[in-house]
């Protein structure tokens, strides 16, 4: 028979397990989590927090798992929604440990016409939320993402394969200063593209494009 002290925890775990099936997952690590793994993760978030998306890719540290828990948005408009993402970690070797909060960041999503924000089709869906580092106005976020979705090139005279921004999901937008923005894009779990943008005189321009590999 259950001790009275343990009954609230068991009931909370039951409710958490009931909600697991509706959480979208991207990345191999997130997809391979069991219902109990996710319930344990959720119980270590802020009280009452329930992610709508879990993202977890394999990293070089084989004994550690990192998962981003994207919480419900705190700002929504037809074109943009924003909210917090809590980065969770746990050690899996030599012993499995409880999930711990590593850090909290901000995310944003820019709408695609005809699709719901929650309608993430897979790892390479360009509708995926991305991390926002630094200060951006809402109109800037929308404008930058829409610009990137046109596959802009650094120069019309260069080969598109060398200079064009690829049609890959955005991982992050990082404000370097008032005029410079660093964009990270995902080709797969361990490679992608970075693009440096210049916002000058109310005009966006690609000034540098590079491919990266972990």
Q: How would you describe this protein?
A:
The chain is an alpha+beta fold. Helices cover 20% and strands 36% of the residues. It has helices spanning 7-20, 28-31, 35-43, 138-148, 160-163; strands at 24-26, 53-55, 64-70, 75-76, 80-91, 100-110, 130-133, 170-175, 180-188, 191-200, 203-213. Strands 1, 2, 3, 4, 5, 6, 7, 8, 9, 10 and 11 form an eleven-stranded mixed β-sheet that branches. Helix 1 packs across helix 3. The radius of gyration is 19 Å and the shape is globular. It starts with 6 loop residues before the first helix and ends with a strand. The model has no long low-confidence stretch (mean pLDDT 89).
Query: What gross morphology would you assign?
Result: globular
> Care to count the β-strands?
11
Mean pLDDT, nearest integer? 89
Summed up, the helix count is 5
Q: Nearest-angstrom radius of gyration?
A: 19 Å
Strand content: 35-45%
**SS-based structural class?**
alpha+beta
The H-and-E topology, N to C, reads as HEHHEEEEEEHHEEEE
Q: What summary fits the major beta sheet?
A: 11 strands, mixed
- State the share of residues found in helices, binned by percent: 10-25%
């Amino acid at each position: 028979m259950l001790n009275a002290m343990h009954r609230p925890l068991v009931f909370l775990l039951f409710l958490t397990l009931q909600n697991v099936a509706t959480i979208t997952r991207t990345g191999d690590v997130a997809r391979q989590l069991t219902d109990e793994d996710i319930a344990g993760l959720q119980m270590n978030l802020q009280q009452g927090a329930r992610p709508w998306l879990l993202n977890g890719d394999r990293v070089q540290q084989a004994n550690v798992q990192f998962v981003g828990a994207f919480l419900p948005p705190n700002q929504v408009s037809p074109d943009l929604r924003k909210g917090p993402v809590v980065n969770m970690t746990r050690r899996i070797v030599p012993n499995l440990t409880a999930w711990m909060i590593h850090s909290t960041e901000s995310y944003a999503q820019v709408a695609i016409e005809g699709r719901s924000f929650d309608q993430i089709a897979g790892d390479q869906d360009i509708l995926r939320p991305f991390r926002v580092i630094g200060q951006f106005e809402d109109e800037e976020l929308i404008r930058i993402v829409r610009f990137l979705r046109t596959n802009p090139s650094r120069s019309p005279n260069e080969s598109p394969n060398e200079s064009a921004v690829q049609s890959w999901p955005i991982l992050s937008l990082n404000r370097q200063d008032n005029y410079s923005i660093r964009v990270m894009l995902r080709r797969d779990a361990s490679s992608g593209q970075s693009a440096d943008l210049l916002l000058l005189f109310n005009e966006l321009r690609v000034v540098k494009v590079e491919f990266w590999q972990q």
